[in-house]
Amino acid sequence: MMKTSDFYYDLPRELIAQTPIARRDGSRLLTLDKKTGRIGHMHFYDLPSLLRPGDCLVLNDSRVLPARLLGRKEPEGGAVELVLLTNRGENVWECLARPGRRLRPGTRISFGEGALNGEIVGESSDGTRLVRFFYSGIFLELLDRLGKMPLPPYITEELEDASRYQTVYSRETGSAAAPTAGLHFTKELLSRLESRGIILAYITLHVGLGTFRPVKAEKIEEHEMHAEFCKLPEKAAGQINHAREDGGRIICVGTTSCRTLETFAAPDGHMEAQSGWTNIFIYPGYRFKAMDALVTNFHLPESTLIMLVSALAGREHVLAAYKEAVKLRYRFFSFGDAMFLS
Q1: Alpha helix positions (H), the chain
Q2: Residue 270: exposed, middle, or buried by beta-carbon count in 10 A (0-12, 13-18, 19+)?
Q3: Last residue of a domain, one of 84, 116, 146
């Protein structure tokens, strides 16, 4: 039985990337052979040389909501911060709220000098609040104008260009955090991949802030995963099936793409178009049905994401690669460098 502490590694705080580098695909790329543990060092723009014609690259096209709202309580004017998590319908959203203890049902909040208003209509056992919003016009347009990007808690600097927390292929709005492995791609790099015969398949998983929730259980099997909405379109299902039939590898960009495929895959890896909620938890011992290789960023110690990566390449290989990355001063987490595990 594996313990959460089995997935700890020591990370100097200064290696946590606070800002994106100037060139998206200029980040470093650590390669890891999942069978032998052999490590290599390249740059992300070298990715096409690591793929073969007929391989299928699966990308998550979810777009991040500018879901962090700063407002004032009515009528006294105290500062309030909300982060929108899940749309519950009828203009009600589940939100993280600060200061939570002062935001009881019936509390009204004003944003943008009254352009958007909200009322607390409920609270959950985990501390989140249900907020009903009142507005004129289109809600997403108001969010674009009034909201800020909900950056992860380990990023303390303000983001100057909000587009750098979106992938260049994002189009399905709904995430509370970016599928960060995709941040390294440029439109030019995607064109280069296609010109080499690489198939690009787009799926959707709306990332929740639960992705940053620490694993508190000592035994990893006792951890309860958060649920996220995901969708496998008919086109992507067909592309993945054809690639596998033709001998190509299925390569997921990010753990979100991986979790989507592994949720919907039949035991033999076959795909059918579908959508729904997933709380799949992948850790060592899991047998992958669909994914052959993975492009991903470096993940937090003791997180469910480093457990997923370890399920693919082995805990010892992954921790050795992370130790090497720390030694060579790779940049870590959302705006950091990347890995290719194959």
Answers
A1: 47-50, 139-146, 187-195, 234-245, 255-264, 304-313, 315-327
A2: middle
A3: 146
- The sign of the torsion formed by the CA atoms of 191, 193, 198, 200 equals negative
Supply 235's token pair: 């086109």
| Each residue's pLDDT tens digit, 10-32 | 999 999 999 999 999 999 999 99
| Strand pairing report for 250-253 and 56-60 | parallel
Same domain, 268 and 246: yes
> Alpha helices, DSSP H only, in 14-147?
47-50, 139-146
Closest CA to 165 of 183, 187, 153, 152: 183
Q: Is 312 helix (H, G, I), strand (E, B) or coil?
A: helix
Q: Are strands 28-32 and 338-341 parallel, antiparallel or unpaired?
A: parallel
Read off the tokens for 178: 């970016």
Q: Is 102 helix (H, G, I), strand (E, B) or coil?
A: helix
- Do 258 and 200 share a structural domain? yes
| Residue 152 within any structural domain of the chain | no
List for the chain the helix, strand, coil content (%; round to 5): 30, 30, 40
Q: What is the number of structural domains in the chain?
A: 2
Give me the domain span that covers residue 263.
Answer: 4-64+161-341
Q: Which residues of 187-216 are buried (b: 16+ CB within 10 A; e: fewer)?
A: eebbeebeeeebbbbbbbbbbbbbbbeebe
**Can you give the pTM of this predicted structure?**
0.91
Alpha carbon 143 to chain centroid distance? 20
Rounded distance between C-alpha atoms, residue 177 and residue 320, angstroms:
28
Instruction: Convert the pLDDT of each residue in 146-193 to its tens digit.
Output: 999 888 888 988 888 989 999 999 999 999 899 999 999 999 999 999
